[in-house]
Amino acid sequence: MDTKTIKSESAAITAIIAGHNNNSTDLMDILIDVQERFRFISEEAVGIIAKAISSSISEVEQTLSFYHFLSRTPTGKYTVYLNNSAVAEMMGRDEIAQTFEEEAECEFGTVSEDGNIGLFHTSCIGMNDQEPSAIINQRVFTSLSRKGVIELVHAMKNGVEIDDLPGTGVRSNIIRPGPILTMEAQPAEILKKTVSRKPEDVIAEVRAANLRGRGGAGFLTAMKWQLCRAVKAERRYIFCNADEGEPGTFKDRVILTERPELLFAGMVIAGYAIGAAEGILYLRYEYKYMAEHLEDVLRQMREDGLLGKSAVAKQDFDFDIRIQFGGGSYVCGEESALLESAEGKRGEPRDRPPFPVEKGYLQQPTVVNNVETLCAVAKIMLKGSNWYRALGTVESTGTKLLSISGDCERPGVYEVEWGFNVNDILRMVGAEDVQAVQVSGPSGTCIASSEFNRRLAYEDLSTGGSMIVIGNQRDLLKDIVLNFTDFFISESCGSCVPCRAMTIQYKKKLEKILRGNGVAADIDQMLSWEKVMLVNRCGLGQTAANPILSTIRNFRELYNSRLRKHTDFVSEFDLSAAVRESCKITNRIPGPGGG
Amino acid sequence: MNKPLIATTSLAGCFGCHMSIMDLDDRILQLIELIEFNKSPINDIKTLSKECDIGIIEGGCANSDNIRLLKEFRKNCRVLIAVGECAIMGGLPAMRNNSASISECLQEAYIDCVSVQANDEGLIPNDEELPMLLDQVYPCHEIVKIDYFIPGCAPRADLIWDVLTALISGKKMELSYECFKFD
Ligand SMILES: Cc1cc2nc3c(=O)[nH]c(=O)nc-3n(C[C@H](O)[C@H](O)[C@H](O)COP(=O)(O)O)c2cc1C
Ligand code: SF4
């Protein structure tokens, strides 16, 4: 590169950083901007950034190296991230991947020789209802076919602008709308109703509705708010968790696309209730294609006086919302990792206590709520807790949005009252010949038909909303369980030894069994390691063995049928292969049996 | 009744675990009242001459001779115990796994390393008598069935004593929390 280009590049990077006021907590935004502008983040860029935000090169590298979509090496003018979730594979991902490689003339994990096209794998991008799908420079291409990929790569080779590339975009696929997904009122009406009451009364209303968090853990929303409000602090924050990384979940994507006003109204309500000055929507990078639309909605709300100084015409209620993008990382959905990431750091979960309600974003009291939770809040403020409590069961009030995908006729989003059983749902989605249902994604549980009469409810089969239907034609262990195990291996943040190392041991055991070399003791060992997994710091590591453990419990026969009989030990060690290289270097011939 | 026979060996280890056995101090005298040593560095008996009741393995498998010896122990010992980090996980020698190939290891050790002297021809030892290095350092349980594992680097003498006396007497052994917690 000549000095002139280098100069103009440094100037561009400096301008990007200045756009973020040289703020170190904006590091994620800075890195994303530089990545998008140059398609990678060079050593020079790292140096410039570190200096400008008064940080160190290693700190910038730390953050940068953590996220899938940030890269220290060029990723191509067009960067293709092909989803590798289990459902993508069920829907024919392999052929699509192969076509990409043939057409682009480079392998996955590399960039074509002319630097034009880069091919990469990525974890579930929240499009399970329209797989196979890929992200190319923030645009999402769904329902990919071989023919479609050939056209797509052809267009990329001809330098067609991203917006003009041929392909199918994202469809919402709302198959069964319910109270949350039905638009009944504008945010202004909901918010005016809210601020006419005292914050304590707002919390009381949510408490009376018995609303529990929809992000997975099911914590009582009102209690979380109350705890946060009770902490004395200069500033409080409300975060909306839109990281939606659990493979198979895509209901938040649909809410963000179809009902963003409702979600933002929910954030204003939460902000009002806890006394926050700022709401932050932490949005996964995979959903960056929505950015413009969401910013438009926020702009409109500001124009309407629903955000900003004296929001909703309420004196002393200054509240605004901004969007914080992630960089591609499942664990950033864990609330404390999310806050670390929002502060510009690696998304490593924090040790708790203190919990975010005490010390959260920038050490200030913070509430983190799921997208769906906040929408429910808005509806509760509009229609009252009595109305809400009448929906669902006594312990699980209201409705649940389900993201249903896999072997069924009508994949998409279904809003149902809590209390539906799995059989009802399978009938609704048109699923026949079902072998298993993966409830709540890889971190949840895989159930067999004997449990299809269980009800979706916190008191029975609790769920964050992902349901993957697995037909009888699938090899459950190879097609699903192995894929899920790989998912956890690639998404572990690496802090805890069992999460980092035992996931690999689990995978090795599973592969041994799949090769027909497993023995009963291998299964016993995998079960006995469960205790060790529970010492992991966060939910990722604590559930990382669930795909294997829940299928051992519910589909034991699938394992047993592959085990070697009449032996208690099988080694896969191959001596002649193990000494091959050293023999070659020393010009020696191994003896019989390799030794 | 004959005293139980015990054999011990060190594969890719540092003999630290055997030092821990020596650390039994005067209890060694009690131990030989209870058992009889067959092949072991402790008495310098070089070969397994009889079927044994207990085999103790220190170190993982880094070369073809480690494999041979481990298999021989498995064949001749009723109960086989992996003692210490290297036998159980590969330990320090396993640091070469995933970080350098065998060629790179040998190149560094015999040719490139600054402390290499008088190897102007750049020879890598290749005598037929030498065992051949394996591509990786393997923990013992990946090669043969291991019945018990005594963790530690090296395991404390007390722990080794408790295991052996429990095995010999057939009594259940109490494992204290410290046996599992190493940070
Ligand atoms: C590995 C991991 C990933 C998570 N991902 C998400 C997510 O994508 N969205 C979400 O709302 N909650 C996620 N959670 C749960 C959050 O930590 C947190 O409990 C939730 O956002 C709280 O919101 P709620 O009370 O409204 O449910 C995740 C938890 C773990 C351990
Ligand atoms: S459990 Fe896994 S993801 Fe969670 S903090 Fe530990 S290493 Fe990171």
What are the defining features of this structure?
heterodimer; A: 595 residues; alpha/beta; Glutaredoxin; Rossmann fold; 5-stranded mixed sheet; 15 strands; B: 183 residues; 5-stranded parallel sheet; two-stranded antiparallel ribbon; 7 strands; 19% strand; binds flavin mononucleotide; binds iron/sulfur cluster
Q: How far is the first residue's CA from the last residue's CA of chain A?
A: 54 Å
CATH C-level name of the largest domain in chain A: Alpha Beta
CATH architecture of chain B: 3-Layer(aba) Sandwich
Helix content, binned percent of chain A: 40-55%
Q: What is the rounded Rg of chain A?
A: 25 Å
Largest sheet composition of chain A: 6 strands, mixed
Which of globular, elongated, flat, extended, rod-shaped describes the shape of chain B? elongated
Q: Choose one word for the global shape of chain A.
A: globular
Number of domains in the coordinates of chain B? 1
The helix/strand class of chain B is: alpha/beta
Class per helix and strand makeup of chain A: alpha/beta
Gap between N and C termini of chain B: 43 Å
Helix residue percentage of chain B:
25-40%
As for the CATH topology of chain B, it is Rossmann fold
CATH superfamily of the largest domain in chain A: NADH-ubiquinone oxidoreductase 51kDa subunit
Oligomer classification: heterodimer
Give a quick summary of the entry.
The complex is a heterodimer of chains A (595) and B (183). Chain A has 595 residues and is α/β, with parallel strands linked by helices.
Question: Any overview of this molecule?
Answer:
The complex is a heterodimer of chains A (595) and B (183). In chain A, 43% of the residues lie in helices and 13% in strands. Chain A is of the alpha/beta class and 595 residues long. In chain A, strand 2 and strand 3 (117-122) form a beta hairpin. Chain B has a single domain, classed as Rossmann fold (3-Layer(aba) Sandwich), CATH 3.40.50. Chain B has six helices and seven strands, in the order E-H-H-E-E-E-H-E-H-H-E-E-H. Chain B has helices spanning 16-22, 27-34, 64-76, 84-89, 102-112, 157-169, and strands at 5-10, 36-37, 52-58, 61-63, 77-83, 133-138, 148-150. Chain B is elongated, with a radius of gyration of 18 Å. The termini of chain B are far apart. In chain B, 37% of the residues are buried. At the A-B interface, helix 25 of A face helix 3, helix 5 and strand 6 of B. The structure holds flavin mononucleotide (FMN) and iron/sulfur cluster (SF4). The site of iron/sulfur cluster (SF4) has 14 residues of chain A, from helix 19 and helix 22.
